[in-house]
Structure formats: C-alpha cells, structure tokens
Design goal:
Length: 229
C-alpha cells in the first residue's frame, strides 16, 4: 500500500571504486523515487550494483556523485557521525546472514538492537515482545538461535529491524541463506508486515519471483536501471 509522498529520492547516482589504476563503476546515473509505505524490490544478478545501491540508501556508503534523499534529508552528504545516527534511529537493516548473537535469546537479540536508540528498559522489553509476536515467534522468545530454524532466525532479524519502528526497512538478499520454501515464507512475512505496519520496505534480490508480490520492481544491470515495473 502506498501514498503519494516519496520517502526515497535517488538523483543521478554514480558510484566508482578504484582498484589500482582501474576504475570500476558500480552505479551509473541511477535515478528513481520510492513512495512512503511501498514494498519495493531491486532486482539484478551478482555485480549489477543492487547491494551498492542499498548501501547508498542506508548511508553505509556515500556516492561518487549524485544524491540520496530519505525522509526529506540528503543522507548522502551527511558526515560520518550523522550517518551513523541516521542508521541507528531511522533505518532497519536485514541481511542475508542473520547476524544474531548466539549467546542471547531471541528476545535479547531484539532488545540489544534497541539499546542504542531507546533508554527506557521497559519500553525495550515491550517492543521486543510486540515485534517477535508480530513475526510469529511469541512462543520462541526465550530460545537461542541454535534452537531455531533458519527461517525463524531470519524472523528474529526482521523483528529486530522493525522494533526500532524505522522510517524504512532495507533488506539485502533476506532469503539468500534459506531454502526455497522457507524463503517464500519470509517474502510473504515481509509483505504482510508492510501491509500491517505501513513501513516502507526495500529489498534487493536476484529472485525474479519477488517481483510478483512487490508494489514496484526496479531492475538493475551493470549499474544502470534496465526497467521499472
């Protein structure tokens, strides 16, 4: 479900990586908008520039040229400290590998993700329980990652990202470490959470099938937009 106001604007984005005397262009004049509340997938094969693009939107990296504007603020020009604060407070990140702490329970893994942005321990506990319940893990909150399946671990990672109640959730190949059936369940979970919470979700993937459930699909090839559907 979308509204008219864009939450992300990418304007003439270029990203070059120097390797000795060689320059590799990962992104070449990329421009698009993402509406608030949309569920968008960025599609492309390995080397297409999709993860580089996601890193620009999350301010993990900065462009060589061009702008990235999120929530009305140009994050591509922020100093390092401000970009760190932007990621801590305004962006939820989900990765291919779950990045859970093995010695912490599911509840504690979500709580630790809130520690830098929320000082009220009671609120931290409430949010952890709320979002673990929302992703279907109400009865698994006190289990450790080793006691959870791959799909359940990714659900914990999604809950951790959403618990910050971010402006935008960004997922980098969220099903890349899962089998096809479990991966489909995670895609359906992301769609359901998008519809229930209104959180803008942007995910990069090489799976063409993801375009079937997205509001918009942006296809990248060799660092350029091939088409938008």
């Amino acid at each position: 479900m979308t509204t008219e106001k864009p939450i992300v604007r990418v304007e003439h984005l270029h990203k070059d990586y120097p390797y000795g005397e060689t320059l590799t262009r990962a992104l070449n004049d990329v421009s698009f908008e993402i509406e608030t509340g949309a569920f968008v997938v960025i599609l492309g094969q390995s080397g297409s520039g999709k993860t580089t693009l996601l890193n620009m939107i999350s301010a993990l990296d900065i462009p060589t040229r061009g702008k990235v504007i999120v929530g009305g603020r140009e994050v591509s020009s922020l100093p390092d400290r401000e970009r760190t604060k932007f990621r801590a407070y305004e962006v939820g990140l989900v990765f291919q590998f779950f990045n859970l702490f093995p010695a912490l329970t599911a509840r504690e893994n979500v709580e630790i993700g809130l520690a830098t942005s929320i000082r009220d321990s009671e609120e931290v506990g409430k949010r952890a329980a709320k979002y673990l319940t929302m992703v279907g893990l109400k009865s698994h909150m006190d289990k450790y990652p080793s006691q959870l399946s791959g799909g359940e671990q990714q659900r914990v990672a999604v809950a951790r990202a959403l618990a910050k109640e971010p402006k935008i959730l960004l997922a980098d190949e969220p099903t890349g470490n899962l089998d096809a059936e479990t991966g489909e369940m995670v895609w359906n979970l992301l769609l359901d959470l998008n519809r229930k919470t209104g959180t803008t979700i942007v995910s990069v993937t090489h799976l063409e099938s993801a375009s079937e459930i997205a509001d918009r699909s942006i296809y990248l090839r060799s660092g350029q937009i091939q088409k938008i559907l």
